[in-house]
Target: glutathione transferase
Amino acid sequence: MARGEEGTATVPKVYGVATVLVCLEEAGAAYEVVPLDMAAREQEAPHHRARNPLGKIPAFEDGDLMLFESRAIARYVLRKYKPDLLGGGDPKRAATVDAWVEAEAHQFHPPASHILRQVVILPMIGGARDQRVVDENVGRLRAVLDAYDARLAKHRYLAGGEEEASLADLAHVGVMLMLVGTEYGRRVVEERANVKAWWDRVALVDAEVGIRSTQSSR
Model:
């Protein structure tokens, strides 16, 4: 998948994943998605480690700049193309965006990723689900989303914006798309009316991107 007109200057190259692609789309930036053969573990090959030294995805090239880690890439993209989604020049709003991006990284993502590993990834590779791990992390996720629900009772988006999603919201896309595809994730979201309404709004952002065809975990 590529965006942008033929004959234009070299565009950024993206190796995975949903969050980065949504930010590029929201920024209106031209880009090229470069597929990797994950089954052949191409992400661990030396040529890919030049982009991501950890041998994982995502990776991002913009001229001579090589970046890895989805949140770092997303911040770079938005700083360059659409800084309003990072809070623009308002230090208070920018700090609020940062706070909720950190909440996604340290509070939402850990239990969500544990659920996905048990429910989605292990069955794909012939592993057995540990229901104790699932139940424990569903409980943790419920507590996190209770806090989200209270916040979203007052604001349409996590960082307080009423008209437009910010990185605080977009940072959730990669994991949330997979999570709501599971019975556990769908239930904990649908049990919280404000979270459900928020996710319905955020999901519209990625609908035009064809994100599901390029979705990994993050």
User: Anything to note?
Assistant: The CA atoms of residues 6 and 30 lie 10 Å apart. The chain has nine helices and five strands.
